[in-house]
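Hi L.,

You mentioned the student needs an example of a multi-chain input paired with its predicted structure. This one should do, with 776 residues in total across all chains.
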Amino acid sequence: MALNFFGGAKAAASQTDHAMLEAISRSQAIIEFGLDGIVLTANPNFLAALGYELADVVGQHHRMFVDAAYATSAEYRAFWERLRHGEFDAGEYRRIGKGGKEVWIQASYNPVIDAKGNPSKVVKVASDITGQKLAAAEAQGQLAAISKSQAVIEFNMAGEVLAANANFCQALGYSLDEIKGRHHRMFVETAYAAGSEYRDFWERLGRGEYQAGEYLRIGKGGKEVWIQASYNPIFDLNGKPFKVVKYATDITGRKAAVNMLGMGLAKLAVGDLTSTIDTKFVGELEEVRTAFNETIAKFSHIVGRLRDTSGTLKTATGEILSGANDLAERTTKQAAAIEETSAAMEQLASTVTDNAKRAEQANSKARQVSQTAEETGEVMKKSNDAMERISSSSSKISNIIGMIDDIAFQTNLLALNASVEAARAGDAGKGFAVVAVEVRRLAQSAASASSEVKVLIEQSATEVTSGSRLVADATNKLEAMLAGIRESASLTDSIAEATREQSNAISEVSVAIRQMDEMTQHNAALVEETNAAIEQTESQANELDRIVEVFVIEGGARPQTRSEPARQPTANPNGVKAQQAKVKSAARSYLSNGNAAIKTDWSEF
Amino acid sequence: MAGAALHDAYMDTTPAIVGVNVTNQFVTFTCGDRAFGIDIMKVREIRSWSPITELPNQPHGAKGVLDIRGSIVQVFDLNAMIGGGGGFGSSESGRVVLVVSLKNQDVGLLVDAVSDIIFAHGDDLRPVPNNGSNRSGGTVSGLVKSDDRLIAILDLGELFPSEAGDGQGFF
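Structure written out for the whole complex:
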């Protein structure tokens, strides 16, 4: 173009030409060489692209921009030879910048033809395409890399094989020649190939839709091959798909492994812990397999231990239950005993109260008796005094009688003397004698009467004396009686005191019994709670047993033998339920009936 | 000496007994549980006992002297004189002094008690059986039956021979 420009237009538009060059120079890297390849000049774009200063490159040969091996090659010499003959050269070139920096440029080397038609110099117009070049190289490298690891096959839109890489051929067992030009359906099952689904598959590819997934494919000799593949329609510049590239990975091993794992997990899901996988898995799935086996082994171990534990738990629950039953029995017995004790204490208390009353009565009686005895003593003393007074009166009477006696005696004597005088008087004294006799008779009567009285008085004195003695005896006896009564009163006082102490002690005992009663009630409630807890524990243990039964482990005892008591929990009379019912009813009856001790249903304890 | 005097008196006064029974009344008394009687005419007075003043050297049976209305009377214990056994039946205070008249004087006889004055009618008066050797027959002049009982009548002359005989007595 520049050639035409220079050739056709001459000086007429030299000014315009120059301006155009300037414009080009602003966007493009431009460098000028002599025909011998020596740099004449370079614009700033070029210098910036390669990293040199203008002074660095002017006068230097072009070979400074290529690697040493290329500079010495015949090709390089031919390149310059063509330029010298006026032939231009254009393309992508690899050039070396300052410090060995690789720069890809798209350039044209244009020999400048002078007026005589001889080339005078070479102008090179270039642009830096290092970035594009690198991107292309990377894309290619990636494709190659994919091809190395993946099975790649290309189809045309009709489904016929255009190309396949070695990985693909190896995966399906074919050689490239065997499949090239054949339709894709040779890789699928015949039934599937005939179905609408397969047609639809290709139709969608034809519409340019991308397909990916895991597919079952048939290799050589009917071998089943699982692949993970993506079918990628490739579009032309108009956006129409013109071929399909399929990238596939052989996942047969993985698939098989996953299947086995799935089966193993399914067995695990139903509790079969014997399903270890002994076949080796591919790739990282081997780790999964070992992990699975370890898991199963661990589960098996855990389940075994769970079984043991649940068996132990059941035994322990049974022991606890029998202990709780014992406890319940004892509690009820204790409750009965406490009731009996309470009743006995009440009886005892009433007896003691009666005793206290009786002691009080006895005491008051004794006081009364004592008072009466003291009064009697007073009466005795009075009667004694009376006796003494009688005695003194008697003695006075005796004196008087003595006097009377004496008077009678004297009278008798006087009468006797009168008689004597009368006798002496002879006949004259006869009448007087009669009187004297009468007087004497009177005197004798008086004397005999007085002696009778004397006898009586003496007798009375004797009687009084004996009466006094009797009274004194009675007084002594009364004194003794009083002492006895006092002693008895003090004894009854002691009895009353002892009874009070007894009563206090009994009330303390009653308090203690009440406390015991409350404790027993608490115990009963506790026993009930315990039994409820045991019931829960028992059902939990059974539940645990059932859960554990689900698992099948190697060398494990049959679950049926372990859970035998759990199979018929209601039929067993000594079973948990029955025992608990017993305990519950006992506890309830105790709690509701305060004086249940007298109830007949307690006799069975 | 007194025994000799009694003996003498008995011997001397035997014939005098018969002439004494003038009134046939006797004062009976007890002395040493025995009942005796004395002719009432011989009795001067009956006294109750009073303390006796004792004298030294008295004759047998004498107790002492009493002042009876100004005259001194000698008192004899009859029980001691007639040889009664059993001693004193009662205390001296209950006893009685019989004042009897002898010929010249009065004497007191201390006896236990005066019982009665009895009348002896006819055959109530009996003689004392005389066997010659019984000395008591001298002092008893007779026996009087009274209420189925025989009471010895004492002969004062025999009892006090000196006084009864000559009347000189001890004075």
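You could point out the following to them. The interface with chain A takes residues 23, 25, 27, 40-41, 43-48, 96, 114, 117 of chain B (CB under 8 Å). The longest strand of chain B covers residues 25-31.

Best wishes,
N.
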